[in-house]
Amino acid sequence: xxxHFPSTAISCTETxxxxxxxxxxxxxxxxYECSDPTSHVLKDIHISAQLIEDFLQIAADNTNKDLETxxxxxxxxxxxxxxxxxxxxxxxxxxxxxxxxxxEEEIFNIQNDxxxxxxxxxxxxxxxxxxxxxxxxHTQYPYQVMVPEAIAxxxxxxxxTQSYGIFRLTDPSGMTVIRECREKGFHPHGDSSDGRxxxxxxxHVYINPxxxxxxxxxx
Length: 219
Hints:
Low-confidence stretches: 1-19, 28-39
Shape: globular
Helix content: 10-25%
Number of strands: 13
Radius of gyration: 17 Å
């Protein structure tokens, strides 16, 4: 079980046998499949399945109260590959359908101290299906502006058809729509100019069972 101490790093690693291997995350749902012309130039992101499981444990209390939980993924860059080595759980305000990070300077301090790239974020949908809401799309946008490879992991424990998804805005289609949108809160988005979906399931993510990571729970 993970213990949580504010502003304290918890070093974790998955124990892997020689039979384990790095697995490629492929599209699990045709609703989100999309041929992105930029996908071939994206750097791969490696992430531990244990990190995702540990985040679910961290979020469990909120999930039981039908409250979302969010965290930021920090990564190192080695040999043109990103390795998600840090999970930062910020102070936050949550509802059943949204989550807002607070005191973001604390996140930036950890990233700067460890020379980490903000390669995305992870959050729960406690009682909703696995998808990207309009708020999620706007949250994802600045991550992809900073790091084009950035991902959004959605965990939906009550969705019996797809319990998690790893998404990104399509580029340029989704990125353009969100960049030009000035709406706040939950709202519909129009179609992209080329008719492509606004977001897609990622094809540049790999589950790496040997990846060591740290967790900072700042709440």
